[in-house]
Amino acid sequence: xxxxHTSVDAEAAARLVAFGMRPKQLPARDVVYGELVRRYxxxxxxxxxxxxxxxxxxxxxxxxxxxxxxxLAAVDESIFxxxxxxxxxxxxxxxxxxxEKVIHGLIHLAVAALAYPRPDDLANDTYIGRVSxxxxxxxxxxxxxxxxxxxxxxxxxxxxxxxxxxLEQAWRAYARRPAAAATKDGRMAxxxxxxxxxxxxxxxxxxxxxxxxxxxxxxxxxxxxxxxIQVRELAADAAFDDLLALDVVAVASAGGTLRAASSDTLQ
Length: 267
Description:
Elements: H1 7-20, H2 31-42, H3 44-56, E1 59-65, E2 69-74, H4 84-91, H5 98-115, H6 119-123, E3 130-132, H7 133-156, H8 166-175, H9 193-206, E4 210-214, E5 220-223, H10 225-234, H11 238-245, E6 249-251, E7 258-260
Antiparallel strand pairs: 1-2, 3-5, 4-5, 6-7
Helix pairs in contact: 1-3, 2-3, 5-7, 5-8, 5-9, 5-11, 7-8, 7-9
């Protein structure tokens, strides 16, 4: 017999999806949310219904568990898809030119690569990564230096840059910006690379992907289970593989504290 769903079931599935759209809400902090997550894990019919409700809204269920809650992603052209203009407003980006899109995309790739530099880190549900503004900026600048060398070699071999990976197209936009500069009132200038990184990290924190830890190194954050699930999806992106392949990320200690490798270690 075909499985039938009551309006109560549909409402419960929709409520679970709604919880997933509240990035800082966690099952451990809400009894109803926790019960819905438990039901999702134990009731295959309810699980399928939840996926159907999400799909009808233009969302994809990446994972549902007690640690992260319901983790969702918008499909292409979904009303919930975060476009550059939306991201620019939320991250308070002044310019929305193509160059800005490239730079911010590079920053987010670097944050993900620093947070989970090894496949084992990404696969380990208990792993917690740490990233800071200075680390991300240092990593992207080192990647830019290495990409510059790769581009020069490609030109020497008469290989058109248009055929190179997308990260090789982006380094100039980042490298020509100053790393840091202070405004008259002592705040970090918005158009510096560290200023852009700081906004990107704050945006990720607002989305429930990172949690502020301290003001050290321009601002230090730890990762959340929600972010780990998102990065697992990102890891399928070729640009993410290109960035990791540059080998500009190193693990400083067994405790999982991460740092950007210095140029001296890359010779």
